Amino acid sequence: MSRKIAYSGILLAINLILLLLINVIPINTLFLMGLESLPIAIIIMEYGPKSGFVFYIASVILGFIVINSKFQWVLNTFTFGIYGLIKYIIERDRPVYIEYFLKILFANVAILIVYFILKPFVYIPVNLFTVLIFEVLSPKTRSAKWSHYYDIAMSPHLSLSILKELIGLKINFNITSKEVIQNKRHFHYKIVIPHILMIIVTIISWIISTRSYIYNNISVGAYILNMAWSIYNFIGIGVSLYVAYQKPIFRTSERIMITENIVVEISNDYGSIQGNLIDISEIGVGVRLHNINENILKVKDNIMLDLNKTKFECEVIRTSNDFVALKFKKICPSQMKIIMSIFTDNMSPYYKIK
């Protein structure tokens, strides 16, 4: 009994130190709360759930005394602090998928309890009514699958930038290159080095888990669940590799796709040809020719563009079958006014609520 009391007292002291660190260290609060949930798990494994429950009550009382922010105390009490006990109750002779379901259910219920307890005292920028409105009115252009792939693509770089900031390295955050023209496809292998490493680690984990399943070291439920989830992540890594294969970039400015039927005429020393305006920017236009057999244009040719009964001096910068990309050479204020008029008339919001 004396050994049990002494051992529990030492773990409770460690628990108390971690709670005090929440006041001292202004960052990584959730990480410290996660560490604080480990001692109760040790007590449950050593002395059972009853001792674990007593340990939890003692931790809650001491936490109320030492934690300055009662918001953090409430969050810890109903989430991390009690998780070791909840985990023990959930993982008692149940299938793996039921365990995962119950853990997710506990997480959601715990957050709701914390939300309703703190809402009268602390401003929480979450309004359930507002969330429901956005859920109804959302155009559904961003699915859960899209969000998952985006997280996989961005998380290595965001995590690295955060770590650099935490340890004080003066390295700029990497962003997508702007105002760059690339005439050929290019694979950004440096960007996807973390994803290539994740592919290697994933394949190794498949080999190890399959071997463990064959030799009956893991259950079939755990094997299937983890394989399914890793395959889903593996597809996201594949999408990240595909995105890193950069298509050619021919224009550095923002272009607007034309929704109106605007007919233009292109002429040079060899004749003229008509087409439809496809897109426009402040530096050039894209034109779809009416008759590809009459294409008299070549790259770097100087031509005259008739747009809305106004002549524009242009240079051919790209041709592809019946498509021609033109760059404005000289633009006066009256010509820019015509360009901006077409530009604004064809602008539309990215999200359209139906």
User: Which quaternary structure do these chains form?
Assistant: single chain
Count of DSSP-assigned helices = 12
- Low-pLDDT regions: none
- What's the N-to-C terminus distance? 69 Å
For the biggest β-sheet, the strand order reads 4-5-6-9-8-7
- Determine the mean pLDDT: 82
**What letter string, H or E per element, gives the SSE order?**
HHHHHHHHHEHHEEEEEEEEH
Outline the biggest β-sheet. Answer: 6 strands, antiparallel, barrel
Shape: elongated
Beta content comes to 5-15%
- Give the helix/strand class: alpha+beta
The strand count comes to 9
Question: What are the key terms here?
Answer:
two-stranded antiparallel sheet; elongated; 354 residues; 55% helix; alpha+beta; six-stranded antiparallel beta barrel; 12 helices
Q: What is the gist of this entry?
A:
This protein is 55% helix and 14% strand. It is built from twelve helices and nine strands. The N and C termini lie far apart (69 Å).
